């Protein structure tokens, strides 16, 4: 979508004013959707992997059963292609009504500033999302109308899945090495050394794209710098990418590669779950969205644990939160139907579908329970982080261009093309320029 070819802002504001004046309750709104005639709702998403695709197909089918007059036109794209389309696509004969948008300054804030997304506050009065979601999860999907501040302002999307970046492990390999899932950071690094000494790949890394190495760095950073410092850095409340803690995290990442703890596949793997499922690696640093596929391929041989704290017995912390939210575009011709769709996919019944698909739901399901051992681990980890307030934001969304800037710097560290100080200096340069421009 391009701001130059969107509907005039006045038209969007008028539509929002009409919506805000409605006194519909949830059931009344549902009745109105059913009486709205034949509608095609175009939905763009990036739920391509295993259970992610399954959950969307099932939810879309269920929505159509509830509203037979609404047909879902689903367009699936990779995250990279989706991001590109969101920022460059022009109005066509069938513009999207609902889109998944990455949180933070990289995508959501930019689109909000360009008036390409519709604020959902008026629909929240109808459906009560602010009562359904914890404030912390709502804040992740909130932006001020000018796009300058993430974490406050209006709500622009609702998320389907909870997400944790943690450590998957091969139970059989750990047992053969005489190891247990690590409970401290020092114990984890000892396990990496033991695995390497016994001829195992401690952690395999796909580095055709920057996301895997960014997540590996983020896990290290959380333990070295701590959650408060990481949160402050993300939200622009203080700190620097060249401070002692972040330089230490960068050095640790590079040192893991030099010691053979983190084994990269140059240009070979976009991610590393396939190699891990096939038996390469004792550990895999990755998101809980892999739990369904890994459980299917590895059965009871795969487990999941939170990154162990730097201090034994301390509270765990790691990056995560919730999946890319579904948002309503400003150019949607069916915003009321789109809002009903968002409400449907965030309902307790929808969370049952998510659980049955082998994924972590953002909210407590109505009756669904995890069926596989690894998903039980994931649910337990989510409960722990919720109790201890242990989640940190996805750091690659700290500025509009950070996914590429940070990712390329970290890929340079892994490949040995740059050192920690030079790599983090480039990252800080981008970050500082963004903060200056935002003032």
Automatic annotation (TrEMBL):
It comes from Actinomadura litoris. PANTHER family: ARABINOSE-BINDING PROTEIN-RELATED, DIACETYLCHITOBIOSE BINDING PROTEIN DASA. This is Extracellular solute-binding protein. Keywords: Signal. Residues 1-25 form the signal peptide.
């Amino acid at each position: 979508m391009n701001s130059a070819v969107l509907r005039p802002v006045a038209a969007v504001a008028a539509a929002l004013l009409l919506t805000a004046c409605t006194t519909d309750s949830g059931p009344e709104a549902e009745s109105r959707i059913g009486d709205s005639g034949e509608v095609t709702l175009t939905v763009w998403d990036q739920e391509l992997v295993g259970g992610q695709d399954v959950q969307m197909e099932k939810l879309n089918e269920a929505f159509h059963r509830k509203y037979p007059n609404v047909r879902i036109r689903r367009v699936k794209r990779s995250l990279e292609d989706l991001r590109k389309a969101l920022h460059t696509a022009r109005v066509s004969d069938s513009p999207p009504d609902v889109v998944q948008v990455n949180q933070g300054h990289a995508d959501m804030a930019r689109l909000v500033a360009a008036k390409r997304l519709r604020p959902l506050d008026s629909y929240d009065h109808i459906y009560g999302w602010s009562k359904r979601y914890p404030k912390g999860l709502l804040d992740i999907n909130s932006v001020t109308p000018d796009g300058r501040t993430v974490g406050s302002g209006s709500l622009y999307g609702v998320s389907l899945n909870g997400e944790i970046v943690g450590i998957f492990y091969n139970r059989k390999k750990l047992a053969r090495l005489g190891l247990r899932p690590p409970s401290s950071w020092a114990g984890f690094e000892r396990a990496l050394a033991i695995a390497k000494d016994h001829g195992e790949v401690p952690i395999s890394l796909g580095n055709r794209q920057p996301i895997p190495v960014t997540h590996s760095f983020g896990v290290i950073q959380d333990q070295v710098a701590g959650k408060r410092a990481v949160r402050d850095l993300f939200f622009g409340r203080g700190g620097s990418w060249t401070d002692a803690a972040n330089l230490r995290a960068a050095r640790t990442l590079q040192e893991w590669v030099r010691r053979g703890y983190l084994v990269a596949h140059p240009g070979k793997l976009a991610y590393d779950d396939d190699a891990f499922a096939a038996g390469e690696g004792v550990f895999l640093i990755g998101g809980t969205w892999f739990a369904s596929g890994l459980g299917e391929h590895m059965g009871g041989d795969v487990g999941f644990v939170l990154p162990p704290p730097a201090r034994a017995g301390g509270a765990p912390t790691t990056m995560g939160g919730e999946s890319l939210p579904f948002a309503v575009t400003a150019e949607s011709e069916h915003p009321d139907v789109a809002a009903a769709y968002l409400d449907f996919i965030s309902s307790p019944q929808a969370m049952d579908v998510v659980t049955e698909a082998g994924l972590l739901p953002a909210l407590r399901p109505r009756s669904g329970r995890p069926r596989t051992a690894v998903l039980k681990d994931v649910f337990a980890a989510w409960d722990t982080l919720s109790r201890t307030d242990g989640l940190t934001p996805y750091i690659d969304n700290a500025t509009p261009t950070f996914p590429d800037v940070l990712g390329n710097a970290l890929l340079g560290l892994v490949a040995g093309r740059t050192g920690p100080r030079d790599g983090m200096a480039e990252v800080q340069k981008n970050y500082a320029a963004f903060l200056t421009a935002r003032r």
